[in-house]
């Protein structure tokens, strides 16, 4: 019997399309979603979505982190809505009118508001001048994003349980900053293991380098997927 793909979005942060398409085909038996980010999209444009979706038809998460005035974000969102991504990211800090503009421009896509990047810690927020700690800032941005029409939120696993309590069960919680126990954190600050993220209430775990940097990305994805089957 084939196992149900795990709730993981593999970040295809590759320098070239062949590598990204190879990673996508290696991981798609094991995961529900692949994520196209700025590196790939800015180099190859909209065609990259069909290339990584491939024959499997895996869900594509388009991570463009839009952040501009509402009219510009509405236009950009309309421009990519025809690619039918399951998720499209915008920065929550763009404010409610911008988030609403994106949500209205792509009714068939879950607009995911990025609250506080998982690469930032409390000291970074103080430096930026954003009222912290990160746990408070995430909750504040999560509430305003959902009120403005976002149907998904991006936060770290550290905040997932509190965000879930704040926004209820209908909102998709997406958590990057995921590292298997003992793996290097690299440029991530607010990290958790896959099991911790799922147990905290995340619906979709974004995982990049721990999978794509492994000698066999397919095997790495399968191993993490298996570890999640034991989490209730
Ligand atoms: O929106 C995202 O996906 C995102 C938000 C965030 O707060 N932190 C974050 O790391 N990401 C993305 O998640 C991925 C994490 O990759 P790894 O650090 O390699 O697992 C990258 O593609 C980031 O762009």
Automatic annotation (TrEMBL):
Keywords: Decarboxylase, Lyase, Pyrimidine biosynthesis. The keyword Lyase applies. Residues 7-224 form the Orotidine 5'-phosphate decarboxylase domain. It comes from the Bacteria. Pathway: Pyrimidine metabolism; UMP biosynthesis via de novo pathway; UMP from orotate: step 2/2. GO terms for molecular function: orotidine-5'-phosphate decarboxylase activity. Pfam families: OMPdecase. Substrate binds at residues 13, 35, 63-72, 118, 179, 188, 208-209. It is an enzyme of class 4 (lyase). Homodimer. Catalyzes the decarboxylation of orotidine 5'-monophosphate (OMP) to uridine 5'-monophosphate (UMP). This is Orotidine 5'-phosphate decarboxylase. It comes from Actinomadura harenae.
């Amino acid at each position: 019997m084939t196992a149900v793909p795990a709730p993981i979005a593999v970040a295809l942060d590759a320098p070239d399309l062949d590598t990204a398409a190879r990673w996508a085909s290696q991981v798609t038996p094991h995961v529900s979603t692949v994520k196209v980010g700025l590196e790939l999209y800015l180099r190859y444009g909209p065609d990259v979505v069909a290339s990584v979706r491939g024959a499997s038809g895996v869900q594509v998460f388009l991570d463009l982190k839009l952040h501009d005035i509402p009219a510009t974000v509405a236009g950009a969102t309309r421009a990519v809505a025809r690619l039918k991504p399951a998720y499209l990211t915008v920065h929550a800090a763009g404010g409610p009118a911008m988030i609403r503009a994106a949500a209205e421009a792509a009714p068939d896509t879950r607009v995911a508001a990025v609250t506080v990047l998982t690469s930032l810690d409390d000291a970074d927020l103080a430096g930026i001048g954003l009222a912290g700690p990160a746990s408070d800032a995430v909750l504040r941005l999560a509430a305003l994003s959902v009120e403005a029409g976002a149907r998904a939120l991006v936060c770290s696993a550290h905040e997932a349980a509190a965000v879930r309590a704040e926004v209820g069960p209908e909102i998709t919680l997406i958590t990057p900053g995921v590292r298997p126990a003992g793996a290097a954190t690299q440029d991530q600050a607010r990290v958790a293991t896959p099991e911790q993220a799922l147990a905290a209430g995340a619906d979709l775990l974004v995982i990049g380098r721990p999978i794509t940097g492994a000698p066999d990305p397919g095997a790495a994805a399968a191993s993490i997927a298996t570890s999640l089957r034991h989490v209730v």
